[in-house]
Amino acid sequence: MHELDLLDIWRQQHPFDNRYSWRGPNHKQSRLDYFMITSDIEAFVVSSDIGISYRSDHSPVLINLRFSSQLREKGTWKFNNSLLRETEFIDKVKGDIKTVIEEYESDPSMDIETEDKQFNISYQLLWDMIKMKVRGSAISFSSFQKKEGNKKEKELLYKISLLDEKLLENNLPSVYQEREGNRTRIKNIEGKKCKRDNNKS
């Protein structure tokens, strides 16, 4: 390592911490994973950490680098098709459509299902107003889902971190099983996130 000018940055920043990055069968634990950097970029490392493992038996070794500050531009909004499987969202959209129609209808007494309703605005503008209303509901619903998912994931990660501390003190099978259960729950949350992202069109 010295000859190659490599640093174990996590150990460099945490000289006295006792942490493991791998957990295997029979409850074995070890720090097998390293993030090696050259001394040239050491000054750019803001922080380093050993994350919580829930995707595999290895924990991620993380470093936070700061080279320069760049602002990310906003992308184009796209409808998330997975929302169409959410009963609550579908009911909200039905209500949105009804609200827009009632707001712009010329004669509220007419039945839209049996009669040709007339509106105070053109059909094209009416359609645009409906889309705008549905878009707002989709953004709001997706934001709520994401917030709740992130909250649940943070709670589970915190529970796993507490269980990791217990495993350092006493490697009990019951604690390990509880940890694996929380790990599975996080993987399920991550799986749902991936499906939502893949369904954006």
Number of domains: 2
The radius of gyration computed from the alpha-carbon positions, rounded to a whole number of angstroms, is 26 Å
The largest sheet has its strands arranged as 1-4
Mean pLDDT: 82
Q: Helicity, in percent?
A: 40-55%
DSSP strand content: 5-15%
Protein name: Endonuclease/exonuclease/phosphatase domain-containing protein
InterPro entries: Endo/exonu/phosph_ase_sf (IPR036691)
Give the topology, please:
Layout lengths: L5 E3 H5 L8 E2 L5 E2 L5 E3 L6 E6 L10 E5 L21 H18 L18 H47 L3 H26 L3
Antiparallel strand pairs: 1-4, 2-3, 5-6
Structure description:
The protein has 201 residues and is mainly α. The protein has two domains: 6-65, no CATH class; 81-198, no CATH class. The chain contains four helices and six strands. A two-stranded antiparallel sheet has the order 1-4. It is elongated, with a radius of gyration of 26 Å. The two termini are 47 Å apart. The mean pLDDT is 82.
